[in-house]
Design brief:
Strand content: over 45%
Length: 155
């Protein structure tokens, strides 16, 4: 079936090593991220989402989508963000290969950013599994540093 999961992705940059891994959970799959900032953690979650759909491949950055989401707390912000990715895929077949996200906190949490990717094509991008929804089950968002998140997705 999908034998290559869990898949660990170690990404290194000048300031921080990033760990992003996808993990199996009964009929679900999850994304865990640990990195330097909460904004970067959300960026990595977007890439993990795409890798689950494609079986580990990230698309080229051919199309841009702006994103703006607000919420009372980080947990809900993550769920709303992943739900937005589900809707983008379900309605436009869009998958992201790049994400630049900024999260700010005032009276509410505000996520603003840009997603760059492509229209999903199984012959070009590969196939993993289709994501139906995001779950609050075992949801974890820690602002850090280091920032950590865990989210489980219904397949």
């Amino acid at each position: 079936w999908f034998k290559s999961i869990p898949r660990y992705h170690f990404i290194s940059n000048l300031f921080w090593n990033v760990l992003r891994k996808n993990f199996e959970h009964t009929a679900d799959i999850g994304i865990e991220v640990e990195t330097s900032t909460i904004s970067r953690a959300f960026e990595e979650a977007a890439l993990g989402f795409s890798e689950i759909i494609t079986g580990g491949n990230l698309p080229k950055e051919l199309i841009s989508n702006d994103v703006s989401i607000e919420s009372d707390n980080l947990d809900s912000l993550l769920v709303h963000f992943i739900s937005y990715l589900v809707v983008l895929f379900d309605t436009d077949l869009f998958i992201s290969g790049f994400a630049k996200i900024e999260i700010s906190k005032g009276e509410i949490f505000l996520l603003k950013g840009i997603l760059k990717g492509d229209i999903y094509d199984q012959s070009k991008h590969g196939y993993g599994v289709e994501i139906k929804a995001v779950s609050y089950h075992q949801l974890l968002v820690e602002e850090g540093p280091p920032s950590r998140l865990r989210v489980i997705l219904d397949l």
